[in-house]
Amino acid sequence: MIDGLSRWTVIAITASVAVLWIALGVVFPDSWAGVTLSVAASPGTHTAMLRLAVPIALAAIGGIFAEKSGVINIGIEGLLIVSAFSAVIVTFWLGSGESTFAVSHHWWGLLAGVLVSTLFALLFAVVCIEYKADQIIAGLALWLIALGLAPFVSRIVFDSPNTGNVGTFDNVTIPVLSEIPLLGYLLFDTPPQVYLMFGAVLVGWYVLNWTSFGRWVVASGENPKALDTAGVDVRKVRYAAVILSGVFAGLGGAGFALGQLGTFAGGGETDMQGRGFIAIATYLFANYHPLGALAGSFLFAGLDAFQLRIQNIGYAVPSELIRTIPYVTVILVITFVGKTRLPDAAGENYESGED
């Protein structure tokens, strides 16, 4: 990490470069600066940013609850994978485009994805809290199991690591408001998973900061002995926090699969492409603040949307180089945006009655 003065110097230099870049783009629209400015300002990039932010933001909120309670869940990427795959396969089995009990099968698929993610989170909690396994190793195991299980089941069902296409949620269009410039197409003509993202982030922020349970979560990660002395069961608080991380990650993975992709590709790093790990970086540089994590998810998702648009227009830059933009930014942000203070008891097992 670098000190505060150097950090503000870096921010000032970055802002100056950005202003210069925008000026060059306006004056020379056919230049590289002009092309990138046009891409960054296009509605397509803005809407893609919101959709791509869904798994990052929701996984980050889930990670905040787990880590604030003292349980480091680096298996968030695995939860995104199993929830995305489960949502798609249940929607496929039920029949996409149809409904049961007047509810679209996409919503039943979303619910299934959340349930599967929650069950995996519960399994992780049992291993870490009940059997006191190393949390980092258990989280890596969760990710690797998901990484192998999803394409394995997909090969059984579809004879391929990739599932069939089940379509996506329709946009929710609010009359009149959807006609407002910029905000209209961003906030009032958008898929339902975007509204779920905003709602879940606000709920997470409120629960963590304004409820007794939120205070217990913080105390569980900072001073579990004091919480235990006050008569609150630390194990139950940690179980609840880790299960909540599964719920939030499940909403993120299933919402992304059914709202943006309509399918699941299980080859390689899967369709999640490391977004769970980006979510961890997001809440760390936001210092565990849910609203800060939301803002960070917009930054990374915006850069992801930007590099996708640049590739689509076929600009003469290697696609491999362009795809690194969001990940390089993760490294730079962690390096230059201040120090994150981990909860004092993060990663430590606790048994009631310990000295």
UniProtKB/TrEMBL annotation:
Compartment(s): Cell membrane
GO molecular function, one term: transmembrane transporter activity
Topological relation to the membrane, as annotated: Multi-pass membrane protein
Keyword Oxidoreductase part of the UniProt annotation: no
GO CC, alphabetical: plasma membrane
Chief location bin: membrane
The keyword Cell membrane is annotated on this UniProt entry: yes
InterPro entries membership: ABC_transp_permease
Keywords, sorted A to Z: Cell membrane, Membrane, Transmembrane, Transmembrane helix
Coiled-coil stretches noted in the UniProt entry, renumbered to this chain: none
Transmembrane segments: 7-28, 48-66, 78-95, 107-129, 136-158, 194-218, 239-258, 278-303
Protein name per UniProt: Nucleoside ABC transporter membrane protein
